[in-house]
Amino acid sequence: MTTPESLPRTAVPHGIVDPVESARAELKAALAAIEDKANVPRRVQKASAAATVKARSFAQRNPVGAVAAVVGVAIAVGGIVWGIARLVSR
């Protein structure tokens, strides 16, 4: 059987027989799910942390490919900035 500590914040524990406690647990889980979905800064932070881990792993496995990817991104960003500057200057 799972303990309440091992359940995610958005899960309702099984075995609650008191209707008031059950409603409280459901409300708590629903509010946690809404917060997880609506908290954009936290979602961006989690996604960037995951991307950082993936990028470091890729760089350790394939350093030449990582350098090529960085150069490619730099060229793409430079091209976009150059294109915007050219459009604005006209």
From TrEMBL:
Keywords of the record, alphabetical order, are: Membrane, Transmembrane, Transmembrane helix
Residues spanning the membrane = 64-85
Superkingdom = Bacteria
Put simply, this protein is called ElaB/YqjD/DUF883 family membrane-anchored ribosome-binding protein
Q: Which organism is it from?
A: Microbacterium pseudoresistens
Q: What is the lineage of its organism?
A: Bacteria, Bacillati, Actinomycetota, Actinomycetes, Micrococcales
